[in-house]
Write a structure and sequence with these properties.
Elements lengths: L2 E12 L4 E12 L3 E5 L6 H9 L6 E6 L2 E2 L7 E4 L11 H6 L9 H14 L15 H13 L5 E5 L7 H16 L7 E5 L3 H7 L2 E5 L6 E6 L11 H15 L1
Parallel strand pairs: 3-8, 3-9, 6-7, 7-8
Antiparallel strand pairs: 1-2, 1-4, 4-5, 9-10
Helix pairs in contact: 6-7
């Protein structure tokens, strides 16, 4: 598979305090791949994801998307936030259309795209309501629709299920896998930050395991089993145990 994104020797720290957060992390993401980033709490997982997105610059190293150096928010990557990050004064439809703000589409085209995504993600008929009328799972669906509205190739997700109950999270995980495999949606690759080992093993083609800070790459776990995966399978439990051992060792 062709590499769509490359993280090369990325380091990050806070100069005023002298605290080093990330230290010389490198990996690649291939087209069609689901990659999870996991590590101890506070190790800089979310910071690394924001560096990949171009939201903050690395102290050292580079990120390349589609062969070009990322020097700011990159066209072609969408971002899903842990806390939904919806604008409460905008309707759900208007929140999704924020993802189209930098496009040249006419307003009717933006409406058509947003409504189409709402229907695909189980939000049909909720466009004129406001986020405060939605459950946590529905709010995250709005956040996902906003992130993919401009047809990105890469979807970045920062602990997207952590604020949800387990049943809601499970349904949303299934939708995410559908997006990766669907020909109707532009997303080719997904990078997800998570603290949930079971979730990472269930969804990922590869798991990037980081150490405690200053975080360095501790291990890359390849998972070749087809989705959907049986959590009760022996290989599943063994892989969970191996990753837990890395995180706690």
């Amino acid at each position: 598979m062709d590499s769509i994104l490359a993280v090369e020797h990325v380091s990050f720290g806070f100069e005023d305090s002298g605290i080093e957060v990330i230290e010389d992390v490198s990996f690649k993401v291939n087209e069609g791949e689901f990659v999870s980033i996991i590590g101890p709490s506070g190790c800089g997982k979310s910071t690394l994801l924001r560096i990949i997105a171009g939201l903050i610059p690395p102290k050292k190293g580079k990120v390349y998307y589609a062969g070009k150096k990322v020097g700011g928010p990159a066209h072609g990557m969408g971002f899903v936030f842990q806390d939904f990050a919806l604008m409460p004064w905008l309707t759900n439809l208007e929140n999704i259309k924020i993802g189209l703000a930098l496009t040249d589409f006419e307003e009717d085209k933006k409406n058509d795209i947003a409504i189409g995504l709402m229907n695909k993600l189980g939000l049909g008929g909720l466009g004129m309501q406001y986020p405060n009328s939605l459950s946590g799972g529905m709010k995250q669906r709005v956040g996902i629709a906003r992130a993919i509205a401009a047809a990105p190739n890469v979807l970045l997700m920062d602990e997207p299920f952590s604020a949800l109950d387990e049943l809601t999270a499970e349904n949303l995980r299934s939708d995410i896998v559908y997006m990766l495999e669907s020909q109707d949606i532009s997303v080719k690759s997904i990078i997800m930050v998570t603290h949930n080992v079971e979730e990472a093993v269930e969804l990922s083609d590869r798991v990037i395991v980081l150490s405690n800070k200053p975080s360095h790459l501790k291990r890359i776990e390849q998972i070749k089993h087809k989705r959907p995966r049986d959590r009760k399978a022996a290989w599943f439990g063994n892989m969970e145990s191996d990753i837990y051992a890395d995180l706690t060792g």
